[in-house]
Amino acid sequence: MTFKLLAVSAALVGFAVTGAVMPGICDEATQAAPLKVAAASQAAPAPDFTGISNWFNSKPLNIADLRGKVVLVDFWTYGCVNCVNTLPHVTELYAKYRDKGLVVVGVHTPEFPFERSASNVQAALRRHGITYPVAQDNESRTWNAYNNQYWPAQYIIDQSGKIVFQHAGEGRYDEIDRTVARLLNAQS
Questions:
Q1: H helix runs in 62-185, sequence order
Q2: What are the Cα distances from residue 174, in Å, to 74, 90, 157?
Q3: Is 141's pLDDT higher than 90?
Q4: Reduced to 3 states, what is the DSSP secondary structure of residue 140?
Q5: Beta partners for 104?
Q6: Cα angle value 179/184/185 (rounded, 5°)
Q7: I want to staple 76 with a disulfide (CB 3.0 to 4.6 A). Which of 1, 83, 119, 133 is the partner?
Q8: Distance (Å, rounded) from C-alpha 36 to C-alpha 33?
Q9: SS3 for 136?
Q10: What pLDDT, on the 0 to 100 scale, is given for residue 43?
């Protein structure tokens, strides 16, 4: 073994043992983007769902038709462990508030080619008990419209169609719940 190969091997073992990440290579392990909450007067209008190849659990939706509702847009992909970890919280939120005016729209944006399969997405929906609408965004057009950069990412849209909250990564479940409850004037 050459000295260079030995040095590279030692560095890789060091990364594995210490849990260090290499920026730009291990993006899923980077720290989540900061929470953003905007006043309705300063909030940006939510982009529409675009380039969707399939809709599951729903007919095709658009943001204009969802005015008057609170909408949680959840960007995810079934091959992402962090996304899978958030799904119980998203499905629980949907069950808790759907009768009070919350619409959850999962936007499944694949990272890998095998995640583009509609049958694989349908199997993931069954496996995770997802009954809310899910848009299959194979070409990342809705992802790009939201200028999204992370899996998972949540965007809360108020009744007037403006993004008032966004969060990337796991966690902040209580804040998401409180934001939805406040917008719905519901008890959390």
A1: 81-97, 118-128, 141-145, 173-184
A2: 16, 11, 17
A3: yes
A4: coil
A5: 72
A6: 95
A7: 83
A8: 9
A9: strand
A10: 83
